[in-house]
């Protein structure tokens, strides 16, 4: 399995990536990968530590002649987003990722690849194992649970790390040097509803929205991609407003940090409305597909008759739900007025479930400006509270403020131009990197972020560029050789 991956260059990087991807490592379930990484460090005879939250720190002394350089922290996260296509028969808790080569890309069959942030982890493993790579004193920090709360970075206590410079290996464009990122907050809206008997003389339908690209709710939010939960609610709103449609169940989206690709709902309509309902919903579907034909060419929405459900929602709560979901801002909320092309604030309507008398709606609000993040979160909270929901704001984490005077930025900028005869894109990103959190407890540490080109992160279309990984690997090794001297 994955032997063609192990044959790719640079072999140290791809072999460690294959080793890592053989270990199931979903967020919140990192026990096996923590043990894997702990054994990896111990087997190398390196000082290895697991802190109280599960972060793994492996220390390696400087190679001869590099002792006078500043100490470096290499940092990546162990967990990965587990997403699969509905027709994929795959068990993330038991199986390793099934990878293959497709031209210049490494992909996974029907699932996320785990290049985010597995290629960063593999880089660190290869450097730790190597006896030839020149480097200053290293601390390899493998954090946990980055994708669903950044609890690893939040739980890392002051004083554990001794390094002067942190290299975060978690960006997705090989020409980008990251100097800042957005903070975020989780919004969870819940309420109960009274179930009612299915009205007599009705026909039941199953509505399916699928085929959307999905993607990273930070990096990809600027693309204006389709959100399955928003599309589904548009259909439900139209059916309710025009035909008195009743909702039995909704199951849409998944993780907060993934733009939702799929949604399903079960509804009922009076039989006397059957023909008009089918006709008007068909027109609405065509309108949605027309709006997204260039962005979402694989979008598929179908409405088919199905077995009658046992219960439906009460009308009052149903009306509040569809109107509240319609009112939720989704996508880009504000562009940065100071940095060209940077999304400042956004929201992802990530998950909507309705079943057995319970409603749950999950959002992730991001912003590089703390006050703007709070403003949008309060706006969303207010809408749901007016609809009778209980709303919890949790898991908040800070952004990472750019520092254009960073010494390590100067090193990377000059090296990139020398190696590539082109200028790098020095930028802040709208994703949530751990640098902002780590910086709270290590404010004097000079931080920078970079990585190989990855596409479609957080979706089954995730893929990593082979040629970019080669470019990135050479860059990492040169950066380690050129770390500034201690003062």
TrEMBL record:
<keyword id="KW-0862">Zinc</keyword>
<dbReference type="InterPro" id="IPR011650">
    <property type="entry name" value="Peptidase_M20_dimer"/>
</dbReference>
<keyword id="KW-0170">Cobalt</keyword>
<feature type="domain" description="Peptidase M20 dimerisation">
    <location>
        <begin position="210"/>
        <end position="294"/>
    </location>
</feature>
<dbReference type="GO" id="GO:0070573">
    <property type="term" value="F:metallodipeptidase activity"/>
</dbReference>
<dbReference type="Pfam" id="PF07687">
    <property type="entry name" value="M20_dimer"/>
</dbReference>
<keyword id="KW-0482">Metalloprotease</keyword>
<keyword id="KW-0645">Protease</keyword>
<dbReference type="GO" id="GO:0006508">
    <property type="term" value="P:proteolysis"/>
</dbReference>
<dbReference type="GO" id="GO:0005829">
    <property type="term" value="C:cytosol"/>
</dbReference>
<dbReference type="Pfam" id="PF01546">
    <property type="entry name" value="Peptidase_M20"/>
</dbReference>
<protein>
    <recommendedName>
        <fullName>Cytosol non-specific dipeptidase</fullName>
        <ecNumber>3.4.13.18</ecNumber>
    </recommendedName>
</protein>
<keyword id="KW-0479">Metal-binding</keyword>
<dbReference type="InterPro" id="IPR001160">
    <property type="entry name" value="Peptidase_M20C"/>
</dbReference>
<keyword id="KW-0378">Hydrolase</keyword>
<dbReference type="GO" id="GO:0046872">
    <property type="term" value="F:metal ion binding"/>
</dbReference>
<comment type="similarity">
    <text>Belongs to the peptidase M20C family.</text>
</comment>
<dbReference type="InterPro" id="IPR002933">
    <property type="entry name" value="Peptidase_M20"/>
</dbReference>
């Amino acid at each position: 399995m994955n032997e063609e991956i192990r044959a790719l260059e640079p072999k140290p990087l791809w072999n460690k990536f294959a080793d890592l991807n053989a270990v199931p490592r979903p967020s919140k379930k990192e026990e096996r990968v923590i043990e894997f990484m702990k054994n990896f460090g111990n087997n190398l005879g390196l000082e290895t530590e697991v802190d109280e939250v599960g972060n793994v720190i492996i220390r390696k002394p400087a190679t001869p002649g590099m002792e006078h350089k500043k100490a470096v922290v290499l940092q990546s996260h162990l967990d990965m987003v587990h997403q699969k296509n509905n027709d994929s028969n795959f068990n993330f808790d038991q199986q390793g990722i099934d990878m293959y080569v497709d031209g210049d890309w490494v992909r996974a069959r029907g699932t996320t690849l785990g290049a985010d942030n597995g290629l960063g982890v593999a880089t660190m493993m290869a450097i730790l194992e190597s006896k030839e790579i020149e480097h200053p004193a290293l601390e390899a920090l493998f954090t946990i649970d980055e994708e669903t709360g950044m609890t690893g970075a939040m739980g890392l206590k002051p004083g554990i790390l001794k390094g002067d410079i942190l290299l975060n290996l978690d960006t997705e464009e090989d020409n980008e040097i990251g100097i800042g990122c957005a903070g975020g907050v989780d919004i969870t809206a819940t309420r109960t509803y009274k179930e009612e008997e299915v009205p007599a003389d009705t026909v039941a339908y199953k509505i399916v929205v699928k085929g959307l690209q999905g993607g990273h709710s930070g990096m990809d939010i600027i693309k204006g991609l389709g959100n399955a939960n928003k599309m589904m609610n548009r259909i439900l709103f139209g059916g309710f407003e025009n035909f008195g449609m009743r909702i039995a169940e909704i199951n849409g989206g998944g993780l907060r940090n993934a733009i939702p690709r799929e949604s399903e709902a079960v509804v009922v309509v009076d039989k006397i409305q059957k023909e008009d309902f089918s006709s008007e919903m068909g027109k609405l579907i065509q309108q949605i597909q027309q709006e997204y034909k260039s962005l979402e060419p694989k979008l598929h929405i179908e409405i088919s008759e199905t077995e009658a459900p046992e219960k439906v929602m009460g009308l009052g709560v149903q009306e509040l739900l569809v109107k509240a979901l319609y009112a939720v801002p989704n996508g880009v909320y504000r562009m940065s007025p100071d940095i060209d092309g940077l999304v400042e604030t956004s929201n992802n309507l990530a998950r909507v479930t309705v079943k057995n008398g319970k409603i749950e709606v999950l959002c992730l609000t991001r912003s590089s400006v703390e006050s703007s993040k709070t403003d949008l979160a309060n706006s969303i909270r207010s809408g749901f509270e007016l609809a009778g929901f209980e709303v919890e704001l949790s898991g908040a984490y800070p952004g990472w403020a750019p520092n254009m005077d960073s010494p390590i930025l100067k090193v990377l900028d000059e090296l990139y131009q020398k190696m590539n005869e082109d200028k790098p894109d020095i930028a802040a990103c709208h994703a949530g990197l751990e640098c902002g959190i780590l910086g709270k407890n290590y404010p004097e540490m000079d931080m920078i972020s970079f990585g190989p080109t990855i596409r479609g992160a957080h979706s089954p279309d995730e893929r990593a560029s082979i040629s970019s990984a080669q470019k990135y690997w050479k860059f990492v090794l040169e950066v380690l050789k050129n770390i500034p001297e201690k003062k």
